[in-house]
Amino acid sequence: MRNNLSIFLNISNNKFSDSQLYYQYKKLERKLINLCEIIVEKKIISGKRDYKKFLILCRSRTGSNFLVSLLQSHPQIRAFGEVFTEEEHIYWGYPGYNSEQILQLRKNNPIEFLNKVVYRETFPLVSAVGFKLFYDQAKRGQQKNIWGYLQKMSDVKIIHLKRKNILEAHVSHKLAERNNQWILLDNQKELMLEPIALDYDECLQAFEQTKIWETEYEQFFAKYKHPIQTIYYEELVSNTLLITRELQNFLEVNYWFLNTYTKKQNQVSLRDKIINYDELKDKFSKTIWSKFFE
């Protein structure tokens, strides 16, 4: 069965010229992955735990959905979404994981949830398993305990995703918040973009807080000598093949051409997205943040 699965998944190593065909394939692939997990769970075949564990560490609007969707197209990788949100929902990115029992386990014992559900025994073909975690997530209740636990799991590889232009991340967050459109699939239409006015103090706080987070959490995981691979969204978009090849080397999986089901949102200039762009540019002109303005 493992050989047959490998042959089937080999299809994803080619580019799809027909988007409808691609989405049909992705649906079938998701169902097959779910079936594989059920087979392991039912002990029909032996699963494995000796895979590479990884964590995608970032703030919001740094292209994490794009990165996760790329990694999900690799048959040897299980890349989960935001599993430690405060919502009564878990963004797995795969079918068959959401249940009331799993939600209760995450709430009452997040460390057991991490070990038994996220980093679970999985299909033998899988070589890397990880999930996405924002700097400001898992800060309340029992969930806050997972940070210290992850820090001491020195075998977890850290993919530190950043955005060079934090203003782009900030305005993207504000627009997504206003439009309630956090991810744009390749077959979806983007909502009409209306420019937004940004507050100077709020921008400054976003710039400073992001830099604090980046430094703090890099040091946090470096303390226990976690392998850390830093990537920038801008480079991931402009040189996807090179960056994804480097990531696959980092995760120690076979090289694969990675596909994505998402597309970039708000593909217009910052000046066109921000009503008071010139005013903000002038206020930040003599600061270290001036580089964020064109």
TrEMBL record:
The lineage's top-level taxon is Bacteria
Question: Mind telling me what this protein is named?
Answer: Sulfotransferase, putative
- Native species: Stanieria cyanosphaera (strain ATCC 29371 / PCC 7437)
